[in-house]
Design a protein that fits this description.
This protein is an alpha/beta fold. It folds into 4 domains: 6-175, P-loop containing nucleotide triphosphate hydrolases (Rossmann fold); 181-242, Helicase, Ruva Protein, domain 3; 247-362, Zinc Finger, Delta Prime, domain 3 (Up-down Bundle); 368-462, no CATH class. The protein has helices at residues 6-9, 22-33, 51-63, 77-84, 101-109, 134-145, 165-168, 181-194, 201-211, 215-229, 235-242, 247-259, 262-274, 279-298, 310-320, 325-342, 348-362, 368-403, 410-441, 445-449, and strands at 40-44, 90-94, 122-127, 151-157, 172-175, 198-199, 232-233, 450-454, 457-462.
Length: 464
């Protein structure tokens, strides 16, 4: 028997087997149950997220011998032929190679009036529909708007913005999401168990990271790893084959940036470059890491909104305590600028190193709001101390007056008052000295170095 690749072997055959697209599955199921099936659907999304799979399952649900049904049997002649892509009533068209007016006429317009031979519907599925020419789109408009009751259109595209508006207005549009890393990891774990594979968790995580949200890419990568190592797959094997950077290395570089460990950052970059890692891909990984860290800080340590594994979430929680949102935001902006510069650079390592050093220095900067809060807190403390000294002095005067009621002459009273005022002045001087001492302790280097002011506005903050 011929070998079948994992991506085809594990292709979902029912709605319940579809992974990561619950919002679309639910809508299509309800449309069938309520008998509200539209004449045209558009599936838009990145590669490997299930556009063709959903189209075939939907076609099976419509043309199954028990259909329309949300649970096609998968064993009748119609279901088997649709799964193979050989059903007479389901026409699959490649929009990239059949993009002219003559192609649309020959494959759709001239055949649309023929009723289905075996099933209940004639289904036309056009993949990469955005590749059709404008003339081909216009030729399809009339048929798409008023097709026979037994005709259904399903379009798929990775670039929906290239589909003309008159086509979009006649379709129900569904946007497929990139599949999250934890979902891909769980699916790979199920595949490994079924295929009797021994694969490390970090190896599955590396494959999921490299798949960039595409389940098919992850399955193909796993297939390639089996050919490379056999049934025992380790993280180091995945990293060496696909040029990926280990999760631990990315987190270590991020930690070095947050703590200002420039020497450690340069050492790690040198190791990764000497081992042949893709430094441009490393930059993208760092952008994603600090983006997740920024979200974690803004949500006060809550990582439930981030699609990561538990180990990654634990690292984010720990690193969130090392910095502030403004510092991380500055790091993200520097990394995004670095990512665009590295695409055209002939010396990516040099640009990467200088940008990471800049990020490490940015993490040490204190934002203006923090400065103002510290100054306000210091001023409030100063006022509180002064009020305490004044209140203590007044209480001593009242107590002295009550304990010596006979001494009412102006001269002794004048001396007593002078002593009390002198005592209060000494206390006040002592308090002010302590405040000035504390002020020097918490003095912020950013203010001490330089604040350039123009028309009363801070235009640049230079760090020491």
């Amino acid at each position: 028997m011929a070998y079948e690749v994992l991506a085809r072997k594990w292709r979902p055959q029912t709605f319940d087997e579809v992974v990561g697209q619950d919002h679309i599955v639910r809508t299509l199921k309800n449309a069938i149950i309520q008998n509200r099936i539209s004449q045209a659907y558009l599936f838009a999304g990145p590669r490997g997220t299930g556009k063709t799979t959903l189209a075939r399952i939907f076609a099976k649900a419509l043309n199954c011998k028990d259909g329309p049904t949300i649970t096609p049997c998968g064993v009748c002649a119609s279901c088997v032929d649709i799964a193979k892509g050989a059903a007479f009533d389901v026409t699959e068209i490649d929009g990239a190679s059949n993009n002219g007016v003559d192609d649309i006429h020959g494959k759709i317009i001239d055949t649309v009036n023929f009723e289905p031979a075996g099933g209940k519907y004639r289904v036309y599925y056009i993949d990469e529909v955005h590749m059709l020419s404008t003339a081909a789109f216009n030729a399809l408009l009339k048929t798409l708007e008023e097709p026979p009751h037994y005709v259904k259109f399903i379009f798929a595209t990775t670039e929906p913005d290239k589909v003309i508006g008159t086509i979009l207005s006649r379709c129900q549009r569904f946007d497929l999401r990139r599949i999250s890393i934890p979902v891909i990891v769980e699916h790979l774990r199920l595949m490994a168990k079924t295929e009797d594979l021994n694969i490390e968790d970090d190896a599955m995580l590396a494959i999921a990271r490299g798949a960039d949200g595409g389940m098919r890419d992850a399955q193909s990568a796993l297939d390639q790893m089996i050919s490379f190592t056999g049934k025992d797959i380790k993280e180091s094997d995945v990293l060496s084959v696909f040029g990926l950077v280990a999760r631990g290395s990315i987190e270590e570089i991020a930690g070095g940036i947050l703590t200002g460990d420039v020497a450690g950052i340069l050492r790690l970059v040198a190791e990764l470059d000497s081992s042949g890692k893709d430094l441009r891909r490393l930059t993208g990984e760092l952008v994603n890491h600090f983006r997740n860290l920024l979200v974690c800080i803004q949500l006060d340590g809550d990582t439930s909104q981030i699609d990561l594994t538990d180990a990654q979430k634990g690292t984010l929680t720990a690193q969130a305590k090392l910095s502030t949102a403004s510092a991380v935001l500055a790091i993200v902006e520097n990394l995004i600028e670095l990512e665009s510069r590295m695409r055209l650079s002939l010396t990516p390592r040099t640009i990467l190193e200088t940008a990471l050093i800049r990020c490490a220095r940015a993490s040490e900067l204190v934002d203006l709001q923090t400065i103002l809060r510290k100054l306000a807190k210091l001023t409030a403390s100063d006022n509180t101390e002064a009020a305490t000294v004044k209140d203590t002095s007044e209480k001593k005067q009242v107590k002295a007056a009550r304990s010596n009621p006979v001494k009412t002459e102006s001269k002794p009273a004048y001396k007593s008052e002078s002593k009390e005022n002198h005592s209060a002045k000494e206390s006040s001087d002592t308090t002010i000295s302590e405040v000035e001492k504390n002020r020097k302790i918490i003095e912020i280097p950013v203010i001490k170095d330089a604040l350039e002011i123009f028309d009363g506005k801070i235009i640049d903050i230079k760090h020491k």
